[in-house]
Amino acid sequence: MKNALTIAGKELRSAFVSPIAYVVLTGFMLLGGWFFFNLLNRFNFLVQIYMSFRNPEVQMRLNLNELVVAPLLGNLSVVLIILVPVITMRSFAEEKRAGTYELLLTSPLSIAEIVMGKFLGVVAFLVVMLALTAVYPAILLVYGNPEPGIIASGYLGLFLLAVAFATVGLLTSSFTDNQIVAAVSCLIVLLLLYVISWPAETAGPTLAAVLRYLSLTEHFSEMVKGVIETKDLIYFGSVITLALYLTHRSVESVRWR
Amino acid sequence: MIEVRNLTKRYGELTAISNISFTAEKGQILGFLGPNGAGKTTTMRIITGFMPATSGTVKIAGYDIFNDSYECRRRIGYLPESPPLYGDMTVVTYLRFVGRIRGIAKADLTDAVDRVLRSCGLEDVPHRVIGHLSKGYRQRVGLAQAMIHSPSVLVLDEPTIGLDPRQIIDIRTLIKELAADRTVILSTHILPEVSQLCDKVVIINQGRIVVEDMLANLTRDTSLEQVFLRYISQDSAVPSGVAEGTA
């Protein structure tokens, strides 16, 4: 565990000395700010319209959680599909290209420690990334009265989604020594997982259920609504565990090739 | 200390090394020679536990590299062909990182880093970013990482490449000092280096060992250049006249 933390620290440090971290964080904040500004603007517009109609009942039903927080988190999740592969593409591919893979694999480290270290490094980066966007809901809490529990549940969902994305990124990065290949293949897998439930509407009931279960979006949107269910947590847990397990096997494969 | 037995490595159809055996004792410097593509790097990667052999065994201090990989890796310091450096770290951060993953306790880390900074001549650049260093300095950082945990076995793949003559002399002296209570495997193309440093010579050609002997026995009445050319041209039957000069 100590070794995993050493590697995680190294990962985090090297993320912040490279420009990638700053580009990703700035882009994420910029887009997040744009989404937030526009959603809030729309919300104010609706409030004003209903006020001018003197329709207090409908006006009371306007809800910051539904009209601002939920779409904000949904949009951020789409941005994450594109940015997470960029964060994870270096993790193994760069080590292989620079020859430092030999250093890691000939040091007295277990492969689990290496994979865990990489994983914890990315998770720490994602925590920073999502924590920065907490400023938007914080503004709402100060000036409005959204439901904090639903925001927390949505953020948990966004975090789990981001971590699941990251493990897929680690896996694709472990396959190659080319960062572009790692990023693009991760992006494609994530997009597939995002849209896999599309045929569910026309498919038979069993297949539809399977496709809906596989879709990352379905589980995420439940949590954005404030519903934390064991099945969703199990889903994210399984994706993360499976991807980490496969990464472990992939790194280990150098030992049996 | 190092015992290599019947090592074979195949990549699909291609046989990189076949049936390699040699031993090196504590206090010895073993010169590992061979033309490019002879299988030197493959052998070193197997000895250091980076990848497994198709068949055969390697024992480091009595531990099997496959079954007791962890114990072996704790005892080995390895400088690969291209030094495994993180270009975005400073020399000290890098050495501290390598020290940690090689199992040096936090309390001893500063001493260990200072020791290798001194012995590898890196005292002038401890806080420079590795990516900005010259090739010679980078090579020395590579050497420093290989010995930071005082390993009992050092595997060095062309350690003096890219260094200037004065640095080469320093590094050779250092290797000689280190070897007093260690085993060193030194792969190189520079034959005078082998003549100066090594006790034992192993020559490998086309994946096979062609000679394993003490340096003194081999060079009793001829130069190492001649020995090298004679052994590596044995199966391709190059006329003996070629042996002069080139090397």
Report on this structure.
The complex is a heterodimer of chains A (257) and B (247). Chain A has 257 residues and is mostly helical. Chain A has one domain. Helix content of chain A is 84%, strand content 0%. Chain A has helices spanning 2-17, 19-52, 56-61, 64-88, 90-98, 100-106, 111-133, 135-143, 148-175, 179-195, 205-214, 216-224, 230-252. With 247 residues, chain B is of the alpha/beta class. Chain B has a single domain (2-243), classed as P-loop containing nucleotide triphosphate hydrolases (Rossmann fold), CATH 3.40.50. In chain B, 35% of the residues lie in helices and 25% in strands. Chain B has helices at residues 40-47, 69-75, 91-101, 106-119, 135-147, 165-178, 191-197, 215-218, 224-232, and strands at residues 2-11, 14-24, 29-33, 55-60, 63-64, 76-79, 153-157, 183-187, 200-205, 208-214. In chain B, a hairpin with a 2-residue loop joins β4 and β5 (63-64). In chain B, α3 crosses α4. The radius of gyration of chain B is 18 Å and the shape is globular. Mean pLDDT of chain B is 88; it is low at 237-247.
Q: Any descriptors?
A:
heterodimer; A: 257 residues; mainly alpha; 13 helices; 0% strand; globular; B: 247 residues; alpha/beta; Rossmann fold; four-stranded antiparallel beta sheet; 9 helices
